Automatic annotation (TrEMBL):
Name of the protein described by the UniProt record: 5'-nucleotidase domain-containing protein 1
SUPFAM superfamilies: HAD-like (SSF56784)
KW Transmembrane helix (keyword) present: no
Region of interest (Disordered), residue spans: 186-214
């Protein structure tokens, strides 16, 4: 869940009214129409991380009531047991701001933020707003390590990858659904779960309306990863990676199509990582997108 919010954040935030707007009440009345549960493999993967002694964080810019609604549907009523620290209304990318812009953490009572910000974090729990330096201090205390390593998963370059990599100095794994549109298939577990969990009214909805699935390559814009540069005369074409692709290589450690694609791997699996010293196809798991492979072949 990555829904960046704007505006002032130095005042307490209250939960949305029961029937405010259109979207939130619709999801609340029928979450199964809009949300797809996580596969059993992803849930088992989260539990295995927890059992291995890893500290699990959930950081979202969504409000606490919406976060609870979504997580209960996709992870189960006991989702809070999976995470040591839950941070809602994180207001990413501002969550990664440094002094003096950083916001204090706030406690929550019935989804209402306390008006007084916390000077620091001293224990795990569910919090609102906050900043990564205070979280970093808590992680040092929880892990007993002077420089705890964090692997951060997200799907937004603006709210997740760039700030977490540049300011938090975290390892980052970007979830890029567009990979599935370029020959990088979801795992068998993911495909099986899709078949079981997708509401009947959603099956085939794109095909029935003459639409492509969201991850399909656009006929108008082409590949998400590569483009063609034309010389002044317009006759010579040179393949180039797109700005989006360049950003993935720069601010992500690894890129994957979905959580299911790695859920069955051993916890100590070593992923090839993006690096300026390696081919531009290195860093994608389980494989690079087709357009990037073709571009590299054409340049050889």
């Amino acid at each position: 869940m990555h829904f960046p919010l704007t505006g002032s954040s130095n005042v307490p935030v209250f939960p949305l009214p029961e029937d405010a707007g259109t979207y939130f009440p619709s999801v609340k009345r029928n979450p199964g129409r809009y949300l797809q549960p996580c596969s059993d493999s992803v849930k088992a993967w989260l539990r295995s991380l927890k059992n291995a002694g890893k500290v699990l964080l959930l950081i979202t810019s969504s409000h606490s009531d919406y976060c609870r609604l979504v997580c209960e549907h996709i992870l189960g009523k006991d989702f809070e047991e999976l995470f040591d620290v839950i941070i809602t209304n994180a207001l990413k990318p501002g969550f990664f701001s440094l002094v003096p812009q950083q916001r204090p953490f706030r406690t929550l009572v019935n989804d209402v933020e306390d008006s007084e910000g916390l000077p620091s974090l001293d224990k795990p729990g569910w919090y609102s707003q906050g900043n990564w330096p205070h979280l970093h201090e808590l992680l040092k205390s929880m892990t007993g390590k002077a420089e705890p390593k964090v692997v951060y998963f997200g799907d937004s370059m603006r709210s997740d990858m760039f700030p977490a990599s540049s300011y938090g100095k975290w390892e980052t794994v970007m979830i890029v659904e567009e990979l599935e549109g370029e020959g990088v298939l979801a795992s068998d577990a993911a495909k099986s779960q899709d078949t079981q969990a997708e509401p009947l009214e959603k099956k085939g909805k794109f095909e029935d309306q003459g639409m492509k699935t969201p991850s399909a390559v656009s006929k108008q814009w082409g590949s998400y990863f590569t483009d063609v540069y034309r010389s002044g005369g317009g006759e010579e074409e040179t393949p180039k990676i797109t700005w989006c692709c360049h950003s993935i290589h720069t601010y992500s450690t690894v890129a994957i199509p979905s959580m299911e694609s790695i859920a069955d791997l051993p916890l100590d699996y070593k992923f090839p990582r993006f690096s300026p010293d390696k081919p531009c196809t290195t860093g994608y798991y389980p494989r690079p997108p087709e357009s990037l492979l073709r571009m590299c072949e054409s340049l050889q």
